[in-house]
Protein: Twitching motility protein PilT
Organism: Vecturithrix granuli
Amino acid sequence: MFQIFLRFYEELNDFLPEKWKKKEFSHFVAGGRSVKAVIESLGVPHTEVDLILVNHESVDFSYGVQPDDHISVYPVFEAFDIQPITRLRPKPLRETRFILDVHLGKLAIYLRFSGFDTLYQSDYNDKTLAQISAQDHRILLTRDRELLKRRMITHGYYVRATHPKRQLREVFARFHLSLSVPLVPRCTRCNGIPEPVSKAEIFDRLPPLTQQHFDEFFHCEVCDVLYWKGSHYQRMQVFLQAASIPEIDHDSF
């Protein structure tokens, strides 16, 4: 066993006990451990880390810690270029797509309403979430920090907020989504893409008041749901504006 010194920056402190937050602290480790193993043993998932400096030099996750190392750990720099130092994840995803765990069903609805390609099923287990995230290059959003420690996951984020609307604000801020709001809306039920449909084609399926007051409709061919710009749509627009998220209007629901 030998002593090392660590400091975690910005939101990485969310994973640490109060005594270690926002300051350098000493820690004893066994020889032969990688810096990745040390970081995750302290509760910080590797997907949250984008830069590690050891004695002021950048290293990757495989670096073997040495006695008296001073280790600085920084969160992801999604919007910044930190080359030529060693970035620890692949480049940010060019197309922002998500997969969410079982705890984030409401957030999935909000992200789909905002137009983002978002996979969610209540029966996804941890193995399935990790595999889909890796294979489809999707950002895994979760409330389970242990899930983010799986080796195959390269793009993931631990959602701090517990209220769904606060979660949406958090994710928009974290991934700078206001800069890349999609032009194509998503079905809030299944993540499909609703297409315009004539009122005559679906007239018999509409509630009486909807038949009277609305003329523009959209149909999801995947799950057969109909959409129109009713009161739910208007409430969501009010929320998005209050959250400083750009108004979503794709000539859709």
